[in-house]
Design brief:
CATH architecture of the largest domain: 3-Layer(aba) Sandwich
Number of strands: 13
Oligomer: single chain
Largest sheet: 5 strands, mixed
Number of domains: 2
Strand order of the largest sheet: 5-1-6-13-7
CATH class of the largest domain: Alpha Beta
Structural class: alpha/beta
CATH superfamily of the largest domain: Periplasmic binding protein-like II
Length: 239
């Protein structure tokens, strides 16, 4: 993949413009989707997106704070001003892009995988659990399969254990971690390639902030630090 290198002067101009526009940028995340984002033992937001967001803010010379919000209302609360940006493993889709704006992707699309208590589950005839308002829930509905939705990713896995569902469909990196931690859960061979890359979500009116974060993301791609971070947290394929 070809890389776009932004001249240092252009990068500085973009970052300075956003820094002047906002004193504090509030970053909204779910805090319940490891390794992308989670709450650590100290009660703080942690994970790939915490490390990435802090680095983006440093490069953009922005003072940032972290806010947690339930997934199913994360876009409405951005639009209503409860925070200024979303970093929550959110894939870019046409439906979301019609409501909010996005930066360039900071990871390629994460292939979606299935997890079950059985290694030979037929997903097309199974009851499939997915988190509400996700690309996975939309995919299952579009296939005409039996779908049950839950507010949190943990509840989708618990639904399989409780017999409410046969299989979970979610981001591969999330299910990889779940399978590694639970001997009774099996990743199925079938993989779905749905959704676009993962990006920062912003209000349509925040063009200066988008430009600053775009420049910071690009600078991390150009110097290799973004790939190193992706590899460290095992959240997606490399750029």
């Amino acid at each position: 993949m070809k890389k776009l290198t932004i001249p240092a002067a252009a990068l500085a101009t973009a970052l300075a413009g956003a820094a002047m526009a906002q004193d504090v940028v509030r970053l909204g995340t779910e805090g319940a989707y490891p390794p992308w984002n989670f709450i650590n033992d100290a009660g703080e937001v942690d994970g790939f997106e915490r490390e990435l967001g802090d680095e983006l803010c440093k490069r953009a010379e922005l003072t940032c704070t972290w806010v947690t919000n339930d997934w199913d209302s994360i876009i409405p609360n951005l639009v209503s001003g409860n925070y200024d940006a979303i970093m929550a493993g959110m894939s870019v889709t046409d439906e979301r892009d019609a409501v909010i704006d996005f930066t360039q992707a900071y990871t390629p699309a994460d292939p979606s995988k299935y997890i079950s208590l059985s290694e030979d589950m037929d997903v097309e005839t199974a009851v499939v659990a997915a988190q509400t308002n996700t690309i996975q829930a939309a995919f299952v509905a579009d296939q005409g399969w039996t779908l049950v939705e839950f507010p949190t990713p943990e509840e989708t896995i618990q639904a399989v254990r409780d017999g409410e569902a046969d299989v979970v469909l979610a981001d591969g990196s999330y299910l990889d971690a779940a399978a590694a931690e639970n001997d009774d859960l099996y990743l199925l061979e079938r993989i779905e390639k749905i959704g676009g890359g993962v990006a920062v979500g912003l209000r349509e009116s925040d063009g200066d902030l988008r430009a600053a974060l775009d420049a910071a993301i690009q600078s991390m791609k150009d110097d290799g630090t973004l790939n190193a971070m992706i590899e460290k947290w095992e959240v997606a394929t490399l750029w």
